[in-house]
Amino acid sequence: MNKDNVLNVINKLPSNLEVCNSILKKLNNNSTKIIEMSAIKGNYYSFINDTIYISNVSKNASDENRVIVIAHECIHSIQNKVVQLANTVISNLYLMLLLVTIILLFFKIDIIFILFPVMLLNIVVREYLELNAVTKSKDVFLDYIKEYLSEEEIFNLDEYFSKEINKAKYLYFLKIIFDKLWPFLTVMIINYICFNIIY
Predict the structure, then answer these.
(1) What sign for the dihedral angle of Cα 177, 179, 185, 191?
(2) Helix or strand run (H / E) with residue 53
(3) How many whole angstroms separate alpha carbon 11 and alpha carbon 2?
(4) Are 97 and 113 within 8 A, CB to CB?
């Protein structure tokens, strides 16, 4: 089944708003809010206000992944809140420490030894949340579509998205590491220049 065939089948499914509402009900989640926005193309979950922001279906009508991505965001909404809070706190702490580390370099104070373990912890927690959602999204997706599609269509989508999710796991893994690592390496380079060339 190629991408175009998958898209044709996915477009038989209801709007993003209806999909999201139905999946949340299947997950026994009656508390998470859903906000549909025409200004965004993708979909995402905000832990801070327990809200899933979804795009109008016309914004991503050409995206064969739209329903499985909504399933992914719905899974985020039921993940352990302590872990999600830890992720938010650690992510913000990491950003703050990046800035503080650069500022302190002007005063010849090196705290990069503190920054490194915070970065590692940030990566571990974020990887757990994302890979957990990616792994579970296919089962949630398949459970949802069985009410709308034929067995053959479900079988073909299962086969297609099994491959896509295996790719997505590696992409998420690498993307999170890159997103957290490049600011750290930048600060490391600035640190080296300051303490080995300027000072």
Answers:
(1) negative
(2) strand 51-55
(3) 14
(4) no
Look up residue 110 and give its two tokens.
Answer: 């090196």
| Phi/psi-derived region of residue 50, left when phi > 0, alpha when psi is between -120 and 50, beta in every other case | left
The DSSP 8-state label assigned to residue 15 in this structure reads -
Cross-strand pairs, 51: 33, 46
Tell whether pTM > 0.85: yes
pLDDT at 143: 96
Tens digit of each residue's pLDDT (9 = 90 or more) over 65-92:
999 999 999 999 999 999 999 999 999 9
CA pair distance 100, 111, nearest whole angstrom: 9
Q: Are 59 and 70 in contact (CB under 8 A)?
A: no
Q: Which residues pair with 46 in a beta bridge?
A: 51
Q: What is the number of other CB atoms lying within 10 angstroms of the CB of residue 181?
A: 14
The candidate with the shortest Cα–Cα distance to 44, out of 142, 123, 129, is: 129
**pLDDT 10s digits, 47-71:** 999 999 998 865 456 789 999 999 9
The predicted-structure confidence for 123-143, as pLDDT tens digits, reads as follows 999 999 999 999 999 999 999
